[in-house]
Please model this.
Amino acid sequence: MIAAHLPALQVVVPLILAPACMLVRLRDAAWGVALAASWASLAIAWLLLQQVLASGPISYHLGNWAPPIGIEYRVDELSAFVLLIVSGIGAVVMPFARESVRAEFGTRRVYMFYTCYLLCLTGLLGIAITGDAFNLFVFLEISSLSSYVLIAMGRNRRALTASYQYLVMGTIGATFYVIGIGLLYAETGTLNMADLASRIAEQPGSRSIGVAFGFIVIGLSLKLALFPLHLWLPNAYTYAPSMVSAFLAATATKVALYALLRMVYTVFESDLTLGLVPMYAMFLGLALFAMFAASTVAIFQNNLKRMLAYSSVAQIGYMILGLSYINVTGLTATIVHMFNHAMIKGGMFLALGCCMYRLGSVHIRDLAGLGRTMPLTAAALVAGGLGLIGVPLTAGFISKWYLVLGAIERGWWPVAVLIMLSSLLAVAYVWRMVEAMYFTPPPETVPEGMDTRLSMLIPTWVLIGASLYFGVQTELTVGVARDAATALLGMPR
Model:
């Protein structure tokens, strides 16, 4: 009986337990509630993925109101995969959060922190599971509003400015999206995504629908931090608490990319949006600019959180690059990289959280000799950096391999070469970390061989270890991603 309601429970569990954190008030009790909600969400996401792989897409009608009148939760390979990413990251960062949040946020009103975290988790899961375009907007705002608060809780006063900047740009993005949805509703009279797709297909030449598509793409691109609409991201990741930086870097942009994929390939259909209109050229150009421009800026950053933030902008470029191919291999690369980048970047931000906890800084000069003073943390940063470069036997290599294959399938040999050249820029900023950690002597005041707490190291290495494991074992990631890409393109399996 419960199995039939798993789609609803995926959203309801963290939503109900969010106010429970406010009610218990006690620091450890609030953390325990958030931990239970996160792990329950992961269990539900895993069960949903198994159901989809075994029996096909799941359609859940809220309140037994059949769509398009009622709101539908729809779980297919892609949405189940994104649910697994979001809930998995949430489950891993929560054990890390206990000490990290206490060190960076303090102990007063910490229950408010966990309340906002669960609301953010609720919004991200809701975006991935809903089959209603306006309901997606509601969940988008739930996740965004709670993200603004989480970022503002950073101990640096600049966190307030970063949060405000994110709020302004996020509000603009949400406004663009909801205007697009309003135009679609005025033209079609429905908000259900499947129903929208069928009605839009009946009037492909409609100017209103074309304008709606433009508004939606711009709005989601702002949420996605697609270059050059990424200006909110570096400060948000840099000044947020370490646990928040890791969680948002691994999930928020991935969910926004999922929403973009859903709109482009499901609601509007790729033949209309990417074939007839040269949208693929726009995505291709912006992706290449992001890969090179953001990686170049990352090289010159001395704050390692900011360095990884600009690296994230570049990695978003890789994901958009696969989308622009309009073939199964390219779209597979995009979906696989959503998963792989979440593991890599989440683990690296957690490693920097370990540095912040023990050293009180993530400036590159303060990480001198980290390989001797915090060997496990330094090793995690190096392993994650190798994944960003795309070294074989790491998850990052799998993503770039499929991107190169997709480019070759399209006959875009110059793009394949540019993918490999852009990896050299990643070598440059990763080497700066390695040089500081292993080739610069540590300060005499820092004792050697004493790493941070196990409660923080274990989550860090779970994510880094996963990025190494899925660099070798690709059956789950590539298999699910290829099935999802095939379904999005409407091709037979």
Residues 37 and 493 are 36 Å apart (CA to CA). The mean pLDDT is 85.
